[in-house]
Amino acid sequence: MFYKQILIDKQKRVFVHKKLDDSSFGYLLPKESISSTLDLFKFSTVSGFGVDDLTLKIIKDFSVPKLDLSKLLDFSSNNKEHQLIPIDSPEVWAFGVTYLDSMRERQSESGTPDVYAQVYNSDRPEAFFKATKNRIQSNFDEVGIRGDSTWDVPEPELAFMIINKKIVAYTIGNDMSSRSIEGANPLYLPQAKVYDKSLSIGPCLVPAENIKDPQSLSVSLKIYRSDNIVFEGNTNTSRMKRNCEYLSEWLQRHNYVPDGTLVLTGTGIIPPTEFSLKELDKIEISIDDIGTLSNIVVKV
Ligand code: DO4
Ligand code: MG
């Protein structure tokens, strides 16, 4: 295992970084070889080289120098100008009710609880279209709560990227959601889920070969209000009823998705019913082997 994270900066330069928690050294891939994260993964798919091997080859062939990435990898909010969504995804899809806890909470907020039990227990999962490129926020960007919503939560979710029909990388997604709008009527789901700044993705992509077991990752959520933690929760992807491969295969039935499509895999952490996000809350989502995605809440 060589490269752990792929990051992109505001000038859309692609960096690879060796390890999450030790040195901050990385490599800037030369534009003549790779000009975007998508290119890197596409080259890897067509050449048959893993992302690690391909990157090593580029570094050798182009004599790419080692760089100090401490600024880019300084995941503190005052360093926000250095990071971007790790991939320009043409489409983002999401799955819902993939954890028992998600089903239970939605049943309690809804006048039609049966629909959630039915979807949890069927073979066909719940998939919905979450975002186009312009709605995706990156690490340290703002995320939105709707002005016409009274009850809002973040949804911390493992996300994966598809190229050539296969899962090639993992990242973190925040599926911002209005519980009051979805709770009023499940047919309002698109309005509860898709609006300005309703999704954030980041801080990096981790090639699939560097994630030992995507169904065994701990996921945690912390919400801060004026520096105090007002909600904290965690789960593990082992609690997902349907695994990532199942979701990926199902999404692509009779449905072509372009290279670089991102997919959110559902939430297993739901704050209690009395909790709602407020403007200026800070949301931090961490997933093992990937990192932390941090965003500030604004009203949209
Ligand atoms: O059923 C509505 C959406 C569920 C969802 O987004 C989730 O479980 O993560
Ligand atoms: Mg969700």
Structure commentary:
The protein is of the alpha+beta class and 300 residues long. The protein has two domains: 2-83, no CATH class; 92-299, Fumarylacetoacetase-like, C-terminal domain (Fumarylacetoacetate hydrolase, domain 2, Alpha-Beta Complex). It has seven helices and 18 strands. A seven-stranded mixed β-sheet has the order 6-5-16-10-11-13-7. Strands 8-18-17-14-15 form a five-stranded mixed β-sheet, with no helix packed on it. It starts with a strand and ends with a strand. Residues 94, 96-97, 102, 106, 126, 155, 175, 189, 266-267 line the site of 2,5-dioxopentanoic acid.
Task: Spell out the blueprint of helices and strands.
Layout (H helix, E strand, L loop, with lengths): L4 E4 L5 E4 L7 E4 L8 H11 L3 H11 L5 E2 L22 E6 L3 H10 L4 H8 L4 E7 L3 E2 L4 E4 L6 E2 L2 E8 L2 E10 L1 E2 H6 L4 H5 L5 E9 L10 E8 L2 E9 L7 H8 L9 E4 L17 E6 L3 E9 L1
Helix pairs in contact: 3-4
Bound molecules: 2,5-dioxopentanoic acid and magnesium ion.
2,5-dioxopentanoic acid (DO4) binds next to β5 and α3.
- The percentage helix is 10-25%
One letter per element, helices H and strands E, the order comes to EEEHHEEHHEEEEEEEHHEEEHEEE
Biggest sheet record: 7 strands, mixed
Strand order of the largest sheet: 6-5-16-10-11-13-7
